[in-house]
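Give me structure tokens for this 238-residue protein.
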Amino acid sequence: MVVESFVGACILALVHLFAGRLRFLDVIPRSRWLSIAGGVAVAYALVHLLPELQQHHEVLRTTVAANGFQSLGDHLLWLMVLSGLVVFYGLEKMAIRSKTKSGESKSPAFWLHIISYGIYNALLGYLLVREDRGLQSLSLYLVGIGLHFLVNDHGLRQHHRQRYHHAGRWVLSAAVLAGWAVGVTTELHEALTASTIAFLSGGILLNTFKEELPEERESRFWAFALGAFSYAGLLLVV
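Here you go.
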């Protein structure tokens, strides 16, 4: 699966490099395609990632309990989900508050935002090469995460504009490939993998909802619902 996962990593990297050319997404009311993509991402997190975490919960709980933190082990999985949500909510607020009169964010806030999303992308790139991922699972992953990247890319372009186009998108694309390389060359403990998935699940949920919920964007509910339930149905069937 190394070749297939590498192709997948390249596809995800290309989303950031070329999403800016999709000018039809930059409209109000919000493009139905972005709302569909958001629905797909939420469905992937809730119907696939979070239930999968139950399979890892015992390993994570046992690992933490063995180090003397029994109570923490019982709840660590969901604390990681919460952490992912809180971290990216904080980054969003920071990006909004740091904007200058020109509409772009200040340089320190920009780089903190990009580095954080770079780590996020690297973790998602790492998950491409997990040992239990077959071609069908990989394809579903690429659809769910690829559309999620499309939504993230649109939000980052709105915040950082030309600075994101000239530098940010390249960092995020490279981060996916770097995460893939780590996944190919390194085998992480199952407890660390579970923590990564939990953190990313929280991040996916927050990053999607922050783009859909603001009233001024006039998001399309039916497009979001269509994406969510269609993709959830696909996950359940396959």
